[in-house]
């Protein structure tokens, strides 16, 4: 009877464990990361008798956790990729909306500015048209400033997010280390801590939402976590710490450091995956490029318009002044050179732009080894040839492998210490520094500097066109032009014998040449292009003017070129300003293009990337769902299945109870037989 009773009791105990396990599954159906459990039952050791071995019941030998490390790892990887895509998408969609908006975009403001110029050019003496140009220039500068501010806010928000996310990563890394310690202790006691394993796996999964992480299982049940290219985040029960700090090369761009045993290591470039990886990837591939391209367009607009204005005359006959702020204003130039925070010297520098047509939308890195300067272009890591001239200050110019000048020079107040480095940002802040500085509409230089006319008593049909300045200083020097043309201008008389123009009063430094259709003489009846070159003997300023002579002049017909001191109704320089809208002035991939095309290329690039990221995000969501479903198919709790188990185990329990009842009845019968 005792054996039968023991068998019944063993069945009750085993069924109790099975019922408890099922109840545990049901109660944790909504617990994140929970893996369903299953009791593992086996027979007790049988008892040997003369008739053979007789069973002694059953026992529960394990409560098994239904989990697969492979499926868990798949889910962790899919989670990391999806979080990275979502973070990238959230940022780039904001930028795409900003760049293409009719409110914050640059294209509408550029169009409005050149429309105002076209209107003013139709009546250059009208002050109202000139005032409209000033207003449009203010709006254009404001559009650049506003868009830069929005980019800067996005950059600041990314910095804040990096700081918050690293804090969360540190908290979870500490949790994993604590779980490792508890799990190792439980394993050492011969137990399998299923719920601790689930809790740790869930923390690692949530950690993968923030940063890409690799998990390596250890023999004691703990896991070591690695990020980036193998940097240890958790080793056993010891976590490392991440911190987001101001960048060594650029304080406005936070970098991620790993602190292990008090030693900090910059791992920003090694990090991938998770929300942190998505933010860093967006900043490196999209935001920085947008900063620089926007600044490049702003600098080119400022520079080319200011230079063109400087080659004309205003209503008072004075050289044109800047409409926009000087691109090499002292503060702006100093902000383009950022010393590395680890530099041992206090050397500072300024970066002056020498040719906006050669600027690229890239940053540069400058290093000094104690003897030589080396530099590279960050966008493509191309090495630069650095040429140094002067001493205190030292002037540095940069050319690529093909010998192409990069459009800027750097001036350092002294030589740096060995291993010092500098971040050079020629265009990064260009959109923030542009401003409209001209306040008097009469100072807009709409007229040309030289006036041409034919003598009234000429006998032929020769007609001279108004000269245009091909090259010259900006602003022009009126003293130079007065020395060139004198009080009465330069007189040119046609000689029908040689088909040439005789210039008896050209000053020293001036030459007249024929450009087309012949380079030696005029061709009567055709449109002839002539060129006047002049190098001023006092200032050494060089000027080149071109003009046309058409029709059929007669011998002795004369023409003159004179300084245009009273060109109130002259709109030649205004038309030259309007022509800048369609003139290739911006360097994009070693090809010159227009303002609108350069900005449009930025908008198109961001738009294309946005579409691509949307597609990638949708794909990563599908992969994540599949990975979650695969994991849940094994480890997820199915309430229908658990309900069936409850009924089954209840029946088992009742049956075991019946075994005990039969044993009790037999025992009672045996006792009664001896009474």
UniProtKB/TrEMBL annotation:
A GO MF label: structural molecule activity
Query: For this UniProt entry, which residues form the secretion signal?
Result: none
Q: Has UniProt tagged this entry with the keyword Manganese?
A: no
**Start and end residues of each Flagellar basal-body/hook protein C-terminal domain:** 635-672
- Domain Flagellar hook-associated protein 1 D2-like residues, every copy: 339-426
Q: Name one GO cellular component term.
A: bacterial-type flagellum hook
Enumerate the InterPro entries for this protein.
Answer: Flag_bb_rod_N, Flg_bb/hook_C_dom, FlgK, FlgK_D2-like, FlgK_helical
- What does the entry give for GO biological process? bacterial-type flagellum assembly
- Residue stretches making up the Flagellar hook-associated protein FlgK helical domain: 93-324
Q: Where is the Flagellar basal body rod protein N-terminal domain?
A: 7-34
Region: Disordered; residue ranges are 453-472
Which UniProt keywords are present, listed alphabetically? Bacterial flagellum, Cell projection, Cilium, Flagellum, Secreted
Q: Which SUPFAM superfamilies match?
A: Phase 1 flagellin
Keyword Endoplasmic reticulum part of the UniProt annotation:
no
Pfam families (UniProt xref)? Flg_bb_rod, Flg_bbr_C, flgK_1st_1, FlgK_D1
Q: Where in the cell is it found?
A: Bacterial flagellum; Secreted
State the family it belongs to: Belongs to the flagella basal body rod proteins family.
Name the record gives this protein = Flagellar hook-associated protein 1
Q: Record the organism.
A: Pseudomonas mangiferae
């Amino acid at each position: 009877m005792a054996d039968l009773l023991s068998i019944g009791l063993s069945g009750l105990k085993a069924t109790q464990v099975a019922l408890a396990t099922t109840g545990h599954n049901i109660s944790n159906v909504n617990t994140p990361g929970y893996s369903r459990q299953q009791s593992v039952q086996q027979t007790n050791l049988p008892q040997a008798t003369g008739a053979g071995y007789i069973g002694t019941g059953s026992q529960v030998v394990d409560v098994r956790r239904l989990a697969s490390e492979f499926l868990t790892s798949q889910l962790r990887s899919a989670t990391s990729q999806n979080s990275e895509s979502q973070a990238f998408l959230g940022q780039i969609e904001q930028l795409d909306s900003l760049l293409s908006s009719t409110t914050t975009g640059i294209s509408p403001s550029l169009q409005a500015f050149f429309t105002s110029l076209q209107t003013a050019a139709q009546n250059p003496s009208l002050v109202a048209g000139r005032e409209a140009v000033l207003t449009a220039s203010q709006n254009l500068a404001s559009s650049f400033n506003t868009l830069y501010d929005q980019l800067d806010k996005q950059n600041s928000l990314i910095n804040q997010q990096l700081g918050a996310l690293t804090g969360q990563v540190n908290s979870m890394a500490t949790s994993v280390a604590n779980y490792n310690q508890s799990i190792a202790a439980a394993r050492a006691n011969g137990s399998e801590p299923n719920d601790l394993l689930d809790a740790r796996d869930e923390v690692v999964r949530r950690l993968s939402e923030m940063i890409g992480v690799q998990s390596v299982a250890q023999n004691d049940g703990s896991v070591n976590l690695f990020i980036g290219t193998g940097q240890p985040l958790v080793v056993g029960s010891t976590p490392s710490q991440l911190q987001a700090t101001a960048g060594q090369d650029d304080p406005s761009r936070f970098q991620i450091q790993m602190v292990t045993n008090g030693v900090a290591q910059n791992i920003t470039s090694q990090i991938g995956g998770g929300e942190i990886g998505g933010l860093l990837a967006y900043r490196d591939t999209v935001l920085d490029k947008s900063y620089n391209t926007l600044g490049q367009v702003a600098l080119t607009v400022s520079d080319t318009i200011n230079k063109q204005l400087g080659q004309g005359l205003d209503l008072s006959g004075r050289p044109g002044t800047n409409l926009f702020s000087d691109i090499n204003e002292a503060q702006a130039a100093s902000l383009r050179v950022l010393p590395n925070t680890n530099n041992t010297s206090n050397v500072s520098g300024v970066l002056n732009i020498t040719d906006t047509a050669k600027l690229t939308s890239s940053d540069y890195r400058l290093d000094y080894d104690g003897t030589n300067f080396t530099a590279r272009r960050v966008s493509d890591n191309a090495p630069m040839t650095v040429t140094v001239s002067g001493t205190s200050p030292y002037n540095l110019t940069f050319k690529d492998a093909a010998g192409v000048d990069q459009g800027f020079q750097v001036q350092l107040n002294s030589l740096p210490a060995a291993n010092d480095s500098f971040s050079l940002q020629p265009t990064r802040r260009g959109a923030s520094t542009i401003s409209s500085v001209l306040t008097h509409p009469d100072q807009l230089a709409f007229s040309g500097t030289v006036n041409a006319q034919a003598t009234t008593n000429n006998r032929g049909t020769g007609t001279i066109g108004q000269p245009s300045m091909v090259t010259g200083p900006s602003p022009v020097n009126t003293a130079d032009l007065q020395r060139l043309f004198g009080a009465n201008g330069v007189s040119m008389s046609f000689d029908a014998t040689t088909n040439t123009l005789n210039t008896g009063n050209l000053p020293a430094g001036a030459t007249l040449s024929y450009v087309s259709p012949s380079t030696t003489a005029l061709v009567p009846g055709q449109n002839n292009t002539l060129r006047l070159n002049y190098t001023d003997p006092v200032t050494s300023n060089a000027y080149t003017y071109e003009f046309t002579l058409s029709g059929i002049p007669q011998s002795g017909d004369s023409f003159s070129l004179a300084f245009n001191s009273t060109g109130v109704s002259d709109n030649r320089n205004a038309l030259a300003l309007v022509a800048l809208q369609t003139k290739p002035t911006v360097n994009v991939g070693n090809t010159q293009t227009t303002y609108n095309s350069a900005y449009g290329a930025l908008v198109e690039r961001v738009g294309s990337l946005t579409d691509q990221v949307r597609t990638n995000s949708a794909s990563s969501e599908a992969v994540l769902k599949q990975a979650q479903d695969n994991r849940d198919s094994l480890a997820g709790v199915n309430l229908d299945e658990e309900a069936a188990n409850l009924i089954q185990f209840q029946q088992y329990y009742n049956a075991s109870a019946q075994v005990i009842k039969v044993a009790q009845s037999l025992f009672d019968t045996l006792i009664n037989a001896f009474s």
